[in-house]
Amino acid sequence: MQKRLFGTPQSNDQRNVDEYFEKATKDALSGGSLTHLPDQSLFFIDKDKDFSIKRKIEKHREKVLRCDSILQRSTLVQKVPSSKRKPKKSKAKVLPKEKLNTIKTTEADQDSNATVLDIWDNKEGDTKAKKKSKRSVIPAVEIEPPGCSFNPSTDDHQDSLAVAVADEMQKVYRAELGPQPVPRRVHGTKIDEEDMYFLDVDDTNDEDLKNDEDLENDDNVAHEHRPLKNKRLTQVELNRRARRKEQLKAESEAKKQENISKEIDCLPDIIKEITKEDEEKHKRLVRRTVARLERLRKAPPRLGKHKFEPEPVQVLLTEELTGSIRTLKGCCTLARDRFKSLEKRGLVVPGGKRKRPVVADVRHVRGGATLELHSASEKVLEACCRNPVVAAVYSSICYNLRDFGAVRP
């Protein structure tokens, strides 16, 4: 079955002709077809400098609407800030009164620039400043020199030994050459009878001399207080005294002028002396600061009654050097080292030398048996730590004596 055609070819040709004529009439009315025209006639650049219209539009856009101005104003209920900013430390500048008055008026008018405050905060505010601990110059862990190791080289070991010997000798020299302390008690000596007689004679002579001096002084005072006869001065003597006074006054003024002229001539020398003094003061200040910093690196500032005493250098002698850790002499100084480090950094107040309490004799009687434990038990404990055989014997003795009520094993 053949398909049905919706249009004949004659009708299609007639439609195309009509469209062509319509397009031709439109191009004729518009000035020609756009496809045949050049680009310069179609497009052009506007180079005019008349921006009056644009400025007006921008001004209208810059104007704040009434609704926006209402929103910008600070309301009665202020916002609670999520976080507080740290106040900036600004140097206070002295302003004249006129500027201060103008600033006050502008601050009163500008409600929009008001600072955001916390409604739950106190009026006075948090005035307490945070305390910041200063970082100590001394490190927490100080590394010992290489000469203090268990297997050092000969040069490093000799250097460390020299430092240790120098520290000990300084202590000895300070004790010998330093000022001797004032004795708490001065022991007196008995005086013989002959010495007492001589002392009494000296006291009497001193008293007689004092009495004679007092009498002479009384005579001089009486002589001074006698009435003097006033002599009548002549006109010649008065004139002479006046001339003498004027002469002395003129000489003093001349001396003053000479001194001033000398000082003016010596101005460059004076300026040099002042500059030298300033340089010496600056050098002295630098020396003091350097010495203070060195002191802080070696020891902390004085915190308490006692002064910090550093631990001596832990260096082994040449006889104690074995070259292996197995045969090394045990020295448990870790806790002491940490405690000294805390004292050196100023975190703990240094204390003095503490005396160990003396162990008193303990007597305990039970069932007719008497047991005495003396302070010699400490020596036994030390021997136990050194020798395991002695420790075993000591533990067996303590186990057997437990029934007698011993205080400590």
TrEMBL record:
It is found in: Nucleus, Nucleolus; Nucleus, Nucleoplasm. It comes from the Eukaryota. InterPro entries: Nop53/GLTSCR2. One of its GO terms (cellular component) is nucleolus. GO terms for molecular function: 5S rRNA binding. Keywords: Nucleus, Ribosome biogenesis. It holds the Pfam family Nop53. GO terms for biological process: ribosomal large subunit assembly; rRNA processing. The keyword Ribosomal protein does not apply. Residues 203-230 are annotated as: Disordered. Its main location: nucleus. Residues 203-219 have a biased composition (Acidic residues). May play a role in ribosome biogenesis. Belongs to the NOP53 family. This is Ribosome biogenesis protein NOP53.
